[in-house]
Design goal:
- The chain is mostly helical and 156 residues long.
- It has a single domain, classed as Cytochrome Bc1 Complex, Chain D, domain 2, CATH 1.10.760.10.
- It is 49% helix and 0% strand.
- It is globular.
Length: 156
């Protein structure tokens, strides 16, 4: 093989590797891949059944979600781009969904209306819900900021 063919082959391989790296959700868990149509279908169904009553059918959250309610607890936040869900890595979102808001993902003694779904949903169903939620994060600003936050977390 000539050196020019070898150079061309290496350039194509490098280009494909870079394309794959850029299209993959940086630092995210592949089990919550928002491009997986099977996960999205399951996630939409599970979200509608178990999450939408509090977090909204359109992921909009409860009104005044940034202010404590009369019971002293925080209302359910939105899971769309207007909320803070996208600020958290997948492993934290999974743990909060499975175990509830308990340490290390909430301060000791924190009271929340967010139940632990570990006894109701399988791990695959939880990952599917996260994929469904993540599929609604589409703005360049959110995706770039999230990728940077996840990269920075990996450096700790």
């Amino acid at each position: 093989m000539s050196s020019s063919n070898r150079l061309a082959r290496n350039a194509v391989a490098l280009g494909l590797a870079l394309l794959a790296a850029c299209s993959a959700p940086s630092g995210d868990d592949p089990r919550a891949d928002p491009r997986d149509t099977g996960k999205l279908t399951l996630g939409a169904k599970v979200y509608a059944q178990h999450c939408s009553a509090c977090h909204g059918a359109k992921l909009e959250g409860q009104p005044d979600w940034r202010a404590r309610g009369p019971n002293g607890r925080m209302p359910a936040p939105p899971h769309d781009e207007s909320g803070h869900t996208w600020h958290h890595p997948d492993r934290v979102l999974f743990a909060v969904t499975k175990d509830g808001l308990v340490p290390p993902n909430a301060p000791r003694g924190y009271e929340s209306d967010m139940p632990a779904f570990g006894g109701k949903l399988s791990d695959d169903e939880i990952w599917a819900v996260l994929a469904y939620i993540k599929s609604h994060w589409k703005s360049r600003e959110v995706l770039q900021t999230r990728a940077e936050m996840i990269r920075n977390e990996g450096k700790r």
